[in-house]
Amino acid sequence: MQGKFLNEQELAAEIGVSRTAVREALLLLVSDGLVELIPQRGAYVPPVTGREMSELMELRGVLEAMPPAWLSNSAAVSFRSRLHWIPRKHGASAEDC
Questions:
Q1: 60 Cβ neighbours under 8 A, 6+ residues apart
Q2: Is the whole-model pTM more than 0.70?
Q3: Three-class SS state of 83
Q4: 36 with 46: CB under 8 angstroms?
Q5: Treating both helix axes as pointing N-terminal to C-terminal, what angle do 8-15 and 19-31 enclose, rounded to 10 degrees?
Q6: What DSSP state is assigned to residue 67?
Q7: φ, ψ for residue 94 (rounded to 5)?
Q8: 43 strand-pairing partners
């Protein structure tokens, strides 16, 4: 999704939440610097730099190396499973990680 505008209505339908929830999430992403709000255009996902990609891969490695006891928690397992979207969403394959 990097380098593209996000459609609130499509995101809400895909995730199964209200548009209000999507707007609130987008505002959090804006505050984290991951999304930009462009007047009259909407939410824009700027391209990820090589340095940012490297940092994401490093973070993923750290999280995946956490002790199995921590990962046995169902919430942690759910979170860990979501990490696999990182390389796909940013143009890398799982094998690159």
A1: 83, 86, 87, 97
A2: no
A3: coil
A4: yes
A5: 110
A6: -
A7: -60, -30
A8: 6, 37
Q: Which strand (E) or helix (H) includes residue 88?
A: helix 85-89
Q: Supply 12's token pair.
A: 């809400």
Domain 4-45 fold: Arc Repressor Mutant, subunit A (1.10.10)
**Domain spans in the chain, listed from the N-terminal domain onward:** 4-45, 50-96
Cα diameter, the chain: 48
Contact of 46 with 2, CB cutoff 8 Å: yes
How many CB atoms sit inside 10 A of residue 26's CB? Answer: 18
pLDDT (0 to 100) of residue 95 = 46
Structure tokens given for 57: 């891969």
Can you give the pLDDT at residue 22? 92
Burial bucket for residue 22 (CB in 10 Å: 0-12, 13-18, 19+): buried
Q: Within the chain, which residues score under 50 in pLDDT?
A: 93-97
Q: What is the C-alpha to C-alpha distance for residues 61 and 48, in angstroms, rounded to an integer?
A: 18
